[in-house]
Amino acid sequence: METNSSGGGSSSGSLGSSSTMILHNAVIVTMDKESRVFRNGGVFVVQDRIKAIGQSADILQQFSQMADQIIDLQSQILLPGFVNTHVHTSQQLAKGIADDVDLMTWLHDRIWPYESNMTEEDSYISTLLCGIELIHSGVTCFAEAGGQHVSEMAKAVELLGLRACLVQSTMDCGEGLPASWAVRTTDDCIQSQKELYAKHHHAADGRIRIWFGIRQIMNATDRLLLETRDMAREFKTGIHMHVAEIPYENQVVMDTRKVDHGTVTFLDKIEFLQNNLLSAHTVWVNHTEIGLLSRAGVKVSHCPASAMRMLGFAPIKEMLHADICVSLGTDGAPSNNRMSIGPFYF
Q: Which residue stretches, if any, does this entry annotate as coiled coil (predicted)?
């Protein structure tokens, strides 16, 4: 690597905190509208913004005199950071505690007791460790799937320099809730999310967004669903929810909500399906429900590792053919025991 000093000389150097920088001699995958790829490309960066991209020779000729650093990437690949759309940062310390069990045992006997006993410091450390692993695999932005102590998550995200949509794990009824969670009322759930939005939305120079969360339909009253829907619309923010993870969930919804299929059918009935909904997993859906998701503009987060481990695979091909926006997530650490979204280790 080479670094230009203010006097125009060059010496060995590395990425630092320079206000202006050229990265050159790289294979640059832009992911822009034209899907441009530069085989010998260069980028000119001013502080935290890319100001120009093109062939290395052109970038060097035009911007060398302005650059504090000039770094030769030696034909490495340079591409935008990955976005991991389903992460439980609170679960990073729980690798290995829930192997080889079904989902309901996983939640009720392993994960929720663990999460409910986390301290604020635990959440901060867990988010730091999770974020470091995300960065290592090339992730620069993630969507939190629901956890505890969101303020500590935000503190860690700000320190790490990541972008994130943070969500509180929100439940107000149902089976399996630890004692400290079972006392939460619907009013508590709604008010706490409003307070988190007021405190942290657009924090860290705009890198942090607060979304609203529903952990799953079996632990949410109709009132919580409807008020979360309306609140997200009022605040112009997103909703992150686990949807149609296992057949048992659909059966419970059919029995208790009196619909003919399951979660997606019921959410459509109450007009919860909106274009601000990130629907995690969404495995057990039929053709009609795929159409409902598509028409509403719902986005789906597909987590291949947890799908193989416990849930089954969503009908991704059919979703894509229906023009549903499908993204990729890792889920929490106990779902796959790692956060490696980049190389897709499986």
A: none
The answer, yes or no, to whether residue 342 has pLDDT greater than 60, is no
The pLDDT, as a whole number, for residue 5 is: 40
Q: Is residue 341 part of a domain?
A: no
Helix residue ranges per DSSP H, the chain: 56-63, 103-105, 112-116, 120-136, 150-160, 179-182, 186-200, 203-206, 222-235, 247-257, 263-269, 287-296, 304-306, 316-321, 333-336
- 193 and 102, same structural domain? yes
User: How many Å is the Cα radius of gyration of the chain?
Assistant: 22
What distances in angstroms separate CA 86 from CA 30, 55, 89, 244, one per listed residue?
24, 35, 10, 15
Name the token pair of 261.
């299929």
Q: Which residue in this structure is represented by tokens 């150097």?
A: 13
Range of the domain at 326: 82-336
Q: What is the pLDDT of residue 338?
A: 66
Amino acid at 86: H
Domain closes at, from 62, 78, 94 = 78
| pLDDT, average across residues 266-279 | 98
pTM: 0.88
Residue 94: closest CA among 67, 126, 132? 126
